[in-house]
Amino acid sequence: MRHRLKDVAERAGVSVKTVSNVVNGYLHVRPDTRARVEEAIAELNYRPNLSARNLRKGRTGVIALAVPELDIPYFAELARHVVTAAAAHGWTVLIDQTGGGPEQERKVASGIGDHMIDGLIFSPLALTADDLAGLDGMPMVLLGERVDHGPADHVVVDNVAAAQEITAHLIGLGRRRIAAIGSQRTPEGASARLRLAGYTAALDEAGIGYDEKLVAPAPAWHRADGAAAMRHLLAAGVRPDAVFCFNDTLALGALRALHEADLRVPEDVAVAGFDDIEDGRFSIPTLTTVAPDKERIARLAVELLAGRLDGDRDAPPRELTAPHRLATRESTTGRP
Amino acid sequence: MRHRLKDVAERAGVSVKTVSNVVNGYLHVRPDTRARVEEAIAELNYRPNLSARNLRKGRTGVIALAVPELDIPYFAELARHVVTAAAAHGWTVLIDQTGGGPEQERKVASGIGDHMIDGLIFSPLALTADDLAGLDGMPMVLLGERVDHGPADHVVVDNVAAAQEITAHLIGLGRRRIAAIGSQRTPEGASARLRLAGYTAALDEAGIGYDEKLVAPAPAWHRADGAAAMRHLLAAGVRPDAVFCFNDTLALGALRALHEADLRVPEDVAVAGFDDIEDGRFSIPTLTTVAPDKERIARLAVELLAGRLDGDRDAPPRELTAPHRLATRESTTGRP
DNA sequence: CCTGGTTTCTACAACGTTGTAAGCAACGTT
DNA sequence: AACGTTGCTTACAACGTTGTAGAAACCAGG
């Protein structure tokens, strides 16, 4: 059975508001009154009705995190960090899976703002600035690529620089025929475009010509796509001496395909990924990758959101860049 | 700017309740009235205030899924299925990370029921029946091991049978010195106990003696723990010809440790896991494992919960068993 | 004992929604 | 013309909470 302030008040012989004051830690309550109320609360196992509180206060204490897919390790790890960072602000996180499709993302963007939620951290794939317009001033922070000059705050990693660095790392190992896996031409492929740009920039800098045949598309960025793309490259007679995969799951798939083709990593082909997911530290071989500071991304996002909620909602949008580093492991440098 | 029923009503020249009726699809509204209201709704971009609706209706349309850790692939995959299954009932899923500790789980169990949530799907590690008492009749479904005869519905897999089957599979390959990784003595280790029981049952059945030295504990069930346990076994001079790891991440860690010790899988040591996570289909070698039907687990859980919500809340608790199968892959049978 | 200030408590209204009950038309039937 | 029926609409109250404003109790200083 559920009890209300009123029940507690009757039992303690005080007014409803006094109970409310005790619950909310209001200062001026006589110690004996407070004790009586607390006793009644305990006896009835009273817990406040958050719907009512939210209605009254206009705040819910819940923020949403919308990601394309929860069982992509990168997003799962990110989610963990966001939950932790949000907890520090006393927030509960409602995690929403968009599926990554334009339609579903639009629905999340427009539909979630039904007063259930104070703010939104959104990791979009397909969203455009227009879609954001529907949000009606819902405080929001976007992760990843900027949605072309939309009105929202952003937390990004420098994809171009990171991709360039890791490609340069491969070049530095003496590799010259460097394949890239994960290119995408759809509008959802913003990350793909930036990482491809970094890849070509590194080739340019080293005076290596861009060879279209070395660039393999991947419809999604799952292990299966990485394996398929790698098999496809090999079947087409392309013999790269290195592969830069646009994320780690693609890379793990590529590792698998290379293994099946009896090619050694890194001796025959060096492999690098992007994201630094847990799997890559235990794969065989362990995976060289770009390690974005996920903890920082999460913290920055939550802090940006907190700024919006507490402060000026109409301040100009800010963009923060989270740091990244190169994690070199066996898939490029071999076993020590 | 946010609008209310009242604003829409004024704009459309009708009463608040009529707008409410339109929003809720009430039948008896004249077509032209409905059109006027809908126009006003569109113009103002009205969206209902869920806090108010929830307060009025006593239902929130949100259920919680509480799991120990989101970035354990098994739980992430499960979460995806639960979200999908819940969507079919029109529910939003609030995902909660308990961290798996007794303290935190108890907090979730007692604290989440603050009227924010209609029901709870809980995958506990450390929870006891006492902890559940605090829930005050919050409809709940537990996943995994039964919390000793608590009052809640359960969805389980037959851990003992599954562990026995996969151990028998290893025995069937001619292996005799079969190690087990993942045993736990803490109260949280209910799964560990059951899987260990299945393991010993299979040994018994085959007339193989139980050797304590072959059983390695693992404080948690992460890759790092699996690798550490495997290294520990090898360092202790134990030379198993097979390893049954109590989940897949342990197994992936064990694969890694075996690789570092230059042991071949499955030639020298066959390796089997439990959970059938995505990683195991692409690891090198691919991982033989017990594949619980996660989609079914999620669906059953959601349906049990739906039954509680719509039906008799005081019906006796039910326990449903989700099917599992054996997925034999390279880590035991080698490359084809 | 009064004054003014502080502490402690309370009554009331409001947050935005929907269920209830009732009102008002318009209709067909007697 | 009176009636019941049906379709459409509305006023009101209530869900459980908290902010506001003010009342009551208390205290210290004259």
Write the layout of secondary structure elements.
Two copies of one chain form a homodimer.
Chain A: H1 5-12, H2 16-23, H3 31-44, H4 50-57, E1 62-67, H5 73-87, E2 92-97, H6 102-111, E3 119-122, H7 129-133, E4 140-143, E5 153-157, H8 159-172, E6 178-183, H9 190-205, E7 215-217, H10 223-235, E8 242-245, H11 248-260, E9 270-274, E10 288-292, H12 294-310, E11 319-322, E12 324-327, H13 330-333
Parallel strand pairs in A: 1-2, 1-3, 3-4, 4-5, 5-11, 6-7, 6-8, 8-9, 9-10
Antiparallel strand pairs in A: 10-12
Chain A binds a DNA duplex (30 and 30 nucleotides) through residues 4-6, 14-18, 20-21, 23-24, 27-30, 33, 48-58, 115.
Can you give a write-up of this model?
- Two copies of one chain form a homodimer.
- Chain A has about 325 residues and is an alpha/beta fold.
- Chain A has three domains: about 5-50, Orthogonal Bundle (434 Repressor (Amino-terminal Domain)), CATH 1.10.260; about 60-155 and about 295-325, Response regulator (Rossmann fold); about 160-290 and about 325-335, Rossmann fold (3-Layer(aba) Sandwich), CATH 3.40.50.2300.
- Helices cover about 45% and strands about 15% of the residues of chain A.
- In chain A, the strands form two sheets. In chain A, strands 2-1-3-4-5-11 form a six-stranded parallel beta sheet, covered by helices on one side. In chain A, strands 7-6-8-9-10-12 form a six-stranded mixed beta sheet, with helices on both faces.
- The mean pLDDT of chain A is about 90.
- At the A-B interface, helix 4, helix 5, strand 2, helix 10 and helix 11 of A face helix 4, helix 5, strand 2, helix 10 and helix 11 of B.
